[in-house]
Amino acid sequence: MNIGQAARASGVSAKMIRYYEQIGLVQPADRTDSNYRNFDDRNVNELRFIKRARGLGFSVEEITNLLSLWRDRARPSRDVKAIAEEHVAELEGRIAEMQAMADALRHLSGSCAGDDRPDCPILADLQVGEARPAQAARRSPNLDTYRETIAIPSPAAPS
Question: What is the pTM of this model?
């Protein structure tokens, strides 16, 4: 089958198939006499494998290792499990980081009056450029206390 057919059968775009060949993630497909790629079921199965692995967030390097283990019928499953467990730990770490960001933004958003006044703890926090002020803001929901915590002066009173 040609690259378009392989793309449809695997769910991987033709562009990504070419990219995976270029970086050596998959072995180049055989070529016809007219130099078109000729994919077989093995190629399509590998592409499906890669698509599923990418869908689970594995990196190209991890997928390379997983493909190598998949192709090796004598592989010890502990090697595959180690890759998967390490990936789960990375995902859980990223989830925790993202949850902390969401919590900080939720708190900052809740601290912002969202009215016509220029005072905005969200912008004040971004001005400082550190993650710590958001943590301090969580302890001090009062805007004036928040300003003191991150050492940002109150705007001058209107004249």
Answer: 0.69
Contact call for residues 136 and 150 (beta carbons, < 8 A): yes
Average pLDDT over residues 26-46: 92
One domain for residues 100 and 150: yes
Q: What is the CATH number of the domain that holds 25?
A: 1.10.1660.10
Nearest to 93 by CA among 124, 48, 66, 57: 57
Residue 29 and residue 36: Cα distance in Å, rounded? Answer: 9
The CA distance from 126 to 99, in Å, is 18
* Structural domain for 144, as ranges: 96-154
Q: Say if residues 88 and 57 touch (Cβ distance below 8 Å).
A: no
| Residue 4 located in a structural domain | yes
Half-sphere exposure of 142 (CA within 13 A, CB side): 4
Q: What residues have CB less than 8 Å from 36, skipping those under 6 apart?
A: 2, 3
Q: pLDDT grade, residue 138 (50/70/90)? A: very low
Write down the pLDDT at residue 146: 40
- Best CA proximity match to 17, nearest among 36, 33, 93: 36
What percentage of the chain has pLDDT greater than the value 70? 81
